[in-house]
Design a protein that fits this description.
alpha/beta; 8-stranded mixed barrel; 5-stranded mixed beta sheet; 21 helices; elongated; binds ligand C2E; binds calcium ion
Length: 534
């Protein structure tokens, strides 16, 4: 065979194989059409080259020049259709992308408006803790996981339903003709299909989605506003915990406005001196002596009254205000502890724990800020403990390791907060220069239940001992929990049973006494209403 012909045929095979592989991922019937078109055009091109070298019957019939023209226009058409398909598809999952899904949502709403469908429901899905999974598995496997999730979700849908990916870990599903009941049934099915673990590289990955549902029964809302409504409902579902669904209610819109107000109030709170610190004692479980206190932030809001951090810290984190707030907490807590150390006998060896949010931790200059604060307030570095969650550290484990190293050099103590709730990477646990683990409240709370959580607490305790770390159990509410933790040899405890968070003046007598009243009275936990979210 002539070398030109040989290379043309080789190119033909490569092009067809390549386009087939790419288009197969898009899972669109038009892919077949583009594939056939491309193959035919390439064949024409080969024939036309062959005709120029040695007249073939087809080339002789049509004429080699014309054959080439046909081949080139065929190839350009294939390219146009190919890009049309590609630009409407999400490359990772092959699902319709945002543009296509919004177009389809517009059509679905138009059908409702014309009375051809009784209603239309959309489901806004967001993968729970995807960032954490992504960080622990690596981005390539995170992408793969999204593909698996998309496949699973599709198995829960019927033929006419439409699913697309909005981007990141967000999916959208359009259900034609469905009211609330049908949409909730689908949401339940989606939770079910994701309840089974996904096998990836020989390990089971557990995942779930939070779902927001919005219904249109008149079809007169715009596609964007219906999407926003479903998004708000999803946000609500997420606040309830993982694998939940919520139906949009107009009150959620009001709450969004309220949130804006909260944001603006938060901007002024520090300047108006509305923040106050409460302190919760951390007690040695062996001796009953107070080991230190955790500084917990409260906001004395002019209208809302005493407001708890779970209401405003997420807002402060999103707006970046948390950086200023946490620095204020650090300064205030160090000043207070230094004052106590000077004025109260027996407080000299106690620590004050301060919580650090993700943004602040990864912000450059934190180490210098801590050093400056310690110098200004004259608090010995060993009297300060910094609490960070593993999720925050895993955001950028390399950077975290080096910053923790610098903080350690200053002499401050480091605690891993809410331990057990993130995707703990044991290899990093070993590398982070931390001093103690704080067992998350959820394990302590349900310790008496299935027995499984007691085993988790026991394992964390054993792990900490092996790594020569101290263990603090938080959220102790009952004497049974206290007893079990004591038996397990847990070093320190914190919780409403021992002492709830108190303002500085009220916690002072306990600190000067050095310990809590011998039989800790069971105080009622904080009323649920006061923790209500925005
Ligand atoms: P956290 O660091 O896990 O703090 C422990 C939370 O558990 C505190 O809630 C504390 O009041 C509560 N708690 C303690 N014992 C018990 C108990 O026996 N039962 C129950 N149900 N709860 C108990 P709080 O003060 O509402 O703080 C919530 C979260 O807000 C904290 O969780 C922490 O992540 C964050 N936070 C608090 N203060 C600050 C701060 O100054 N800066 C930052 N960035 N975050 C803060
Ligand atoms: Ca904490
Ligand atoms: Ca905690």
């Amino acid at each position: 065979m002539h070398p030109v012909l040989l290379s043309a045929s080789f190119l033909l095979v490569i092009a067809i194989a390549w386009s087939f592989a790419l288009l197969r991922r898009l899972r669109d019937w038009r892919a077949l059409f583009v594939f056939a078109w491309l193959a035919a055009s390439m064949l024409l091109l080969v024939l036309s080259i062959a005709g120029q070298l040695r007249p073939t019957s087809v080339a002789a019939m049509i004429g080699p020049g014309r054959l080439q023209q046909l081949a080139i226009s065929g190839l350009s058409m294939a390219a146009v259709i190919y890009f049309h398909v590609v630009f409407q598809r999400d490359a990772l999952t092959g699902l319709p992308n945002r543009a296509l899904i919004m177009h389809r949502l517009g059509n679905a709403l138009a059908r409702v408006a014309r009375g051809r469908d009784p209603a239309c429901a959309i489901l806004f899905l967001d993968v729970d803790r995807f960032k954490v999974i992504n960080d622990s598995l690596g981005h390539t496997r995170g992408d793969k996981l999204l593909g698996f999730i998309a496949e699973r979700l599709k198995t829960a849908l019927r033929k006419g339903d439409c699913i697309g990916r909005l981007g990141g870990d967000e999916f959208i599903i359009i259900l034609h003709g469905e009211h609330e009941e049908g949409a909730v049934r689908v949401a339940e099915r989606l939770h079910e299909v994701l309840a089974r673990p996904i096998q990836m590289s020989g390990r089971d990955v557990f995942t779930g989605v939070s779902i927001g549902i919005a219904i249109s029964s008149r079809g007169n809302e715009g596609a964007e506003s219906l999407l926003r409504a479903a998004d708000l409902a999803m946000y609500r579902a997420k606040l309830q915990g993982s694998s939940r669904h919520e139906i949009f209610k107009p009150s959620m819109q009001v709450n969004a406005d309220e949130r804006l107000q909260l944001e603006s109030d938060l901007q002024h709170a520090a300047k108006r001196g509305e923040f106050v610190l409460y302190y919760q004692p951390i007690v040695s479980l062996a001796t009953g002596r107070v080991h230190g206190v955790e500084a917990l932030l409260r906001w004395q809001h002019r209208e809302r009254g005493l407001t708890f951090p779970d209401v405003f810290v997420p807002v402060a984190e999103e707006t970046g205000l948390i950086v200023t707030i946490d620095l204020w907490v650090l300064e205030e807590a160090c000043t207070q502890m230094r004052r106590w150390q000077r004025e109260l006998p027996g407080v000299r060896d106690m620590l004050v724990h301060v919580n650090l949010s993700g943004r602040q931790f990864l912000r450059s200059g934190l180490v210098e800020k801590v050093a400056e604060t310690l110098k200004r307030t004259e608090l010995p570095a060993g009297s300060l403990g910094l609490e960070m969650t593993e999720t925050v550290l895993m955001d950028d484990a390399e950077l975290a390791t080096s910053m923790l190293g610098d903080l350690k050099t200053l002499g401050v103590k480091l605690q891993l907060d809410d331990f057990g709730t993130g995707y703990s990477s044991l290899s990093y646990l070993h590398r982070f220069p931390i001093d103690s683990l704080k067992i998350d409240r959820s394990f302590v709370t349900s310790m008496g239940g299935s027995g499984k959580d007691a085993r988790i607490v026991r394992s964390i305790n054993a792990l900490a001992r092996d790594l020569e770390l101290e263990v603090i159990a938080e959220g102790i509410e009952t004497t049974e929990q206290l007893e079990v933790l004591r038996r397990l040899g847990c070093h320190y405890g914190q919780g409403n049973l021992l002492c709830e968070p108190l303002d500085a003046s009220k916690v002072e007598p306990l600190l000067s006494a050095g310990g809590l009243p011998s039989e800790p009275g069971s105080r009622p936990p904080r009323p649920a209403s006061s923790r209500a979210l925005v």
